[in-house]
């Protein structure tokens, strides 16, 4: 990239900074950032490029959207920034590279950036070179994104599923999906925790679709029908929990009664003692004493 870092930090008006590649932020993580900046200040300045216009100068953001939005949330008028010389394409690439390097980036943001570079005419090999990703990953990510397979993409980016397996699932029908999981297991691509996560993802994909709704989409007002359906679903879940609890209590009662009868059988006690099993947990002994009136 042709960007050249500035030699000093400048104070830039926040209302003159334009975010070229905006992303949706997790509200909790954003609130934590705002609180941290409010208490400790800004640890690292944002990076911008100057754009001279008639009423300018104005600035395009290279990296630091979260920090910029936190300053706006706090009502700050200016923010410390490094000013670099870069065109719009360089800024978009720098934003993508920062997204790749971020430890807890949102997978769908990274993949949308890759798709954006592809639409702007970048070849797969060029995207791979600029981002440090493999050509296989970039090509597979573009194909999955074109199919709307956000759940599969999220799993790939989290390291829970190889992109080759995700592509095989995306191309398969329902029986083929199960066959793809079987092949992945036989080839040691999915084992243990990753295999269980893949099975859960396949079920969620089947029930809820390929798309992962963002927190903003989840804020949509529910209709009366959907609200009633959600209430009924939660009611059914609670009833199932009650039935399971009652079944567990019945089993515990049965075991307690059985043990109580055994513990008053002298022949059984002698057998247990001869096998070195004459003792029992204090909690269990106390329960039998209360329920059966056994000697303590």
From TrEMBL:
Q: What CDD domains would the database entry show?
A: ParB_N_like
Q: InterPro entries recorded for this chain?
A: Chromosome_partition/occlusion (IPR050336), ParB/Sulfiredoxin_sf (IPR036086), ParB_N (IPR003115), Plasmid_RepB (IPR011111)
Q: Where in this chain does the record put each ParB-like N-terminal domain?
A: 10-100
Q: What is an example of a Pfam family matching this protein?
A: RepB
Q: Where is the signal peptide?
A: none
Lineage top rank: taxon: Bacteria
Matching SMART domains: ParB (SM00470)
Q: What is this protein called?
A: ParB N-terminal domain-containing protein
Q: Tell me the organism.
A: Sphingomonas abietis
């Amino acid at each position: 990239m042709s960007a050249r870092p500035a030699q000093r930090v400048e104070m830039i008006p926040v209302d003159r900074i334009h975010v070229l590649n905006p992303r949706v932020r997790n509200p909790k993580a954003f609130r934590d950032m705002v609180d941290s900046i409010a208490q400790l200040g800004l640890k690292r300045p944002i990076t911008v490029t100057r754009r001279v216009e008639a009423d300018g100068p104005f600035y395009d953001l290279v990296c630091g959207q979260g920090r910029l939005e936190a300053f706006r949330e706090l009502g700050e008028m200016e923010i410390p920034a490094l000013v670099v010389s870069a065109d719009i394409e360089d800024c978009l690439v720098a934003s993508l590279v920062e997204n790749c390097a971020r430890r807890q980036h949102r997978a769908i943001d990274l993949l949308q950036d890759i798709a954006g570079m592809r639409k702007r005419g970048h070849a797969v090999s060029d995207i791979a070179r600029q981002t440090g990703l493999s050509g296989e990953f970039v090509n597979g990510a573009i194909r999955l994104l074109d199919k709307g397979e956000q759940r599969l993409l999220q799993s790939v980016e989290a390291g829970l599923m190889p992109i080759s397996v995700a592509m095989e699932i995306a191309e398969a029908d329902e029986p083929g999906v199960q066959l793809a999981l079987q092949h992945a297991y036989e080839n040691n691509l999915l084992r243990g925790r990753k295999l269980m996560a893949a099975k859960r993802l396949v079920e969620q994909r089947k029930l809820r679709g390929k798309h992962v709704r963002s927190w903003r989409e989840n804020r949509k007002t529910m209709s009366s029908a959907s609200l009633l359906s959600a209430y009924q679903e939660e009611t059914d879940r609670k009833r199932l929990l009650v039935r399971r609890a009652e079944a567990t209590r019945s089993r515990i009662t049965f075991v307690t009664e059985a043990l109580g009868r055994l513990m008053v059988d002298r022949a059984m006690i002698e057998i247990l003692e001869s096998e070195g099993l004459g003792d029992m947990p204090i909690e269990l002994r106390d329960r039998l004493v209360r329920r059966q009136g056994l000697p303590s």
